[in-house]
Write a sequence for this structure.
């Protein structure tokens, strides 16, 4: 039960203002909060189309060598017999396929180095031989960036999962790139620290992959982007050179900050093998509240006021619409958290060093939201289980959508006031296009959730089947809409194979040209993660 | 007077523990807290040696064209007659000379564009003609990075000082690069926001220069580095191309984050003309406390405990030694803040949204520090004037040292436990070398202060005169010491002409090679800020 003394006291105070008390029911049971679980059934279903069949137009670059037995033998000399997977379709399947089963490559070889030197030896050989390579972390990405398109060799960082060191005074962690985010977070927890980022896939994703994709996640609002928290990287360049930039200093102004180039480079210019990252103290007090609201206007009001009243203790401000809740309910049977349903929900998390102070700040804020008519209803989690329950609702949307026959997924950012206008506009556009709103329409729902604090919207268009007339209605329409509102076509998921051809909607020709120059300089043979990231046209 | 009810109540509680009450006297009067004042007398004294005479070994690169009247005429067509300074030694002096009067160039021309297009036109011409260029912001740097060495053209950003826009929901500011940091901070103050960085030179330094040098300053501990807070840049490349990356989004994962390259590039690969930056809410409650301590061991204990108890409200943790205090007193006559003097001092600032909560956290922390014997004495500022008084002490060291006949200035970072060992080691080393500790020794004092929270030490060796045997004792000895302790030879001041040849102590040959490749790619004619930043040897 959520009901507890603190909430009752809040309720009674609210009652004085002739408002109904906060109605409180039971916690939301976890749907199955981690991608780990999803990946288990991913391996059972082999009926995934190849990317090149699903999205025609890809042509294998014949500059790349085709893998030979001699190549495999050479890799055996580097890694031993157990350090690679070769030829067996079943073994290769989870490395060739993304967890959403949207993309599938045709690689015959997965390499699993355990040391930076092995990665260097592999890359040197691949560069000399012109073998194309796809670096792969936890393979939890959403844009097809971590799986091959054709027969590229997969370089899995799974085997590089050692924590290298931790400075207990400064909170600086050094680790192999293949460490799982949640493992690091739990390890740090015992020392009173935490990872500065958190995302739904944390049970599977690697810290190296997080950095290669510049993962944002749930707490960017509080702890900032990886460009600020990553202090050093060890990177193997395409020619095998080891770039040792594993600084453990908060301040170091000696030359161009080269490591920044690799943050968000999606494995196209180097393989991240080691990480140095600044970790914050784990907060002694964490509170999570859920509000029900009538409009996105109210969501914005609640956000603006939270930045003033909760300020330094605000650690997350997430929203979703009722469509997201219905999608969750379709694939799981949560008990209701509130008596009624509302068009919008926000999840607010605070993290601070003094429980009494934080409770007081949060309760005052919630009271103000109710008295001012911004929120219609609200609950506050009373213990760790209830906190997890509320978070599992927010984190469950991706998985619920994954159970739909087809989903068009978008991850866009723009000024906060425009966020939901984009969703409503898309619904109308699909209705006008005749693919949504009728009984036999291919589009079954348009679902929205995201990080209000970061102006980041996850827009999901669920469909009974993939249809070209639906795709044609969405793209480039959505990208044009985003560009017209100074937004980004990929806020945090990255480009991969899904967005690379649309880069021009978010970056100028001058920027794209400079990116290509950078790529050519660092990877002149273009062996790293080909067919992705940058547009193929000149 | 510092005495106030809150302090008295703390004192009485401490008295219960048989500790002497916190002794409180009057506020420290400001020495003259801003670099602006220093620069006023800088122009009165023309007896500054040229860099090339003081530091022999520089040879003018004859690939650069010498300025002609035709060139000046061409710049007049771009900027008009009032947009440049030409030929007059007095007018040129403040642009040729750094404010510490350590470096002096021989430029005959200062250009003052007012628009990005003018900067582009200037750079295109200079690149075509192979005229070397030094971009200059507020010229408050400490490593000679912003003044010419020979006859390079100075490109001053003074005239580009417009605020472009501000988003009141997200706190994102866009501005010209030539805006003065303090002007921006005051402007934001009226809107309830603040700049995420602060430094002693804020009355003169430009935001563009801050970003070009990756300025750290006093509040990095709280708001993080510019690599995290800068969201977008507009940069004119050496060939005149305008790189428009003025994103106003917190999240944008579309391609390499090119703007990061320019943060800390010290004007060697482009001219920053526009800035988009995330600004935090100005805290409703700010407290500043000063503690007197007996050892650097105690300073570390106080720091570690502050991260636990003050956590999310901690916004600065600065330290200085008694030598720094004596240096301040030598050039100003502050009233004593505490009854006695101590070997070490720490200045602690908290910033939060609830004054009562913050007071309680800070008082509990201070009480613990006194009861545990970590601190010997302490005061808490009671109002804005007293807060400024305490800060002016911390910010006055640079200016006080500037009044010494000669100062060897170092800005290094390393793991916190090693910070003061470095100072003590240097004192002993100079004594052993026979240049310190005797009546006629050239070195008069070794003064230390810095940002504990960032592992950043400002080490200053004051001397009665510059002597080569002193320099020879300090360098490369200090840089070797820093390198042996995994530190950086330049934490926040940058490389400029002062540190570039020592880069190898902080960066590997592979890193330096890649930096040079980057420089050659972006500035093939090497016209930007030559003789600096990267080592001249291959």
């Amino acid at each position: 039960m959520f009901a507890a003394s603190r909430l009752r006291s809040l309720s009674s105070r609210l009652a004085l203002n002739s408002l109904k008390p906060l109605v409180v029911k039971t916690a939301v049971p976890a749907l199955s909060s981690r991608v780990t679980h999803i990946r288990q059934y991913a391996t059972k279903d082999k009926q995934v189309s190849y990317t090149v069949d699903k999205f025609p137009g890809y042509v294998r670059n014949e500059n790349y060598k085709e893998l030979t037995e001699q190549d495999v033998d050479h890799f055996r000399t580097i890694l031993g017999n157990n350090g690679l997977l070769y030829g067996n379709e079943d073994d290769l399947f989870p490395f060739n396929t993304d967890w959403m089963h949207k993309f599938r490559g045709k690689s015959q070889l997965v390499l699993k180095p355990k040391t930076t030197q092995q990665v260097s030896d592999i890359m040197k050989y691949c560069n000399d031989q012109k073998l194309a390579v796809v670096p792969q972390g936890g393979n939890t990405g959403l844009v097809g960036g971590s799986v091959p398109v054709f027969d590229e060799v997969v370089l899995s960082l799974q085997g590089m999962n050692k924590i290298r060191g931790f400075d207990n005074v400064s909170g600086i962690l050094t680790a192999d790139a293949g460490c799982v985010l949640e493992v690091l977070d739990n390890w740090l927890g015992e020392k009173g620290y935490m990872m500065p980022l958190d995302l739904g896939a944390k049970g599977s994703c690697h810290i190296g992959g997080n950095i290669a994709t510049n993962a944002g996640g749930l707490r960017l609002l509080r702890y900032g982007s990886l460009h600020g928290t990553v202090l050093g990287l060890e990177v193997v360049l395409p020619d095998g050179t080891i770039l040792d930039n594993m600084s453990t200093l908060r301040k170091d102004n000696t030359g161009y900050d080269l490591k920044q180039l690799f943050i968000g480079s999606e494995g196209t210019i180097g393989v991240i093998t080691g990480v140095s990252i600044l970790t914050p103290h784990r907060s002694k007090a964490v509170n999570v509240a859920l509000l029900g609201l009538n409009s996105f206007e109210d969501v914005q009001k609640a956000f603006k006021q939270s930045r003033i009243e909760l300020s330094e203790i605000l650690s997350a401000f997430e929203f979703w619409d009722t469509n997201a809740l219905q999608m969750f309910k379709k694939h799981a049977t949560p008990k209701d958290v509130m008596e009624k349903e509302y068009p919008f929900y926000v999840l607010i998390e605070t993290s601070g060093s003094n429980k009494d102070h934080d409770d007081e700040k949060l309760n005052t804020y919630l009271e103000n939201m109710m008295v001012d008519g911004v929120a219609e209803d609200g609950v506050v989690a009373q213990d760790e289980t209830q906190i997890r329950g509320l978070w599992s609702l927010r984190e469950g949307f991706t998985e619920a959508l994954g159970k739909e026959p087809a989903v068009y997924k978008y991850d866009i950012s723009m000024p906060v006031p425009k966020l939901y206008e984009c969703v409503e506009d898309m619904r109308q556009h699909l209705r006008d296009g005749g693919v949504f709103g009728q009984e036999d329409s291919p589009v079954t729902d348009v679902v929205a959730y995201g990080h209000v604090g970061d102006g980041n919207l996850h827009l999901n268009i669920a469909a009974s089947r993939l249809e070209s007339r639906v795709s044609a209605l969405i793209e480039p329409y959505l990208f044009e809409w985003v560009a017209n509102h100074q937004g980004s076509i990929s806020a945090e998921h990255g480009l991969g194979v899904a967005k690379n051809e649309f880069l021009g909607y978010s970056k100028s020709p001058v920027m794209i040209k400079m990116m290509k120059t950078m790529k050519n300089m660092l990877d002149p043979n273009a062996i790293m993660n080909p067919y992705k990231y940058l547009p193929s046209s000149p």
Chain A touches chain B through 92 residues (CB under 8 Å).
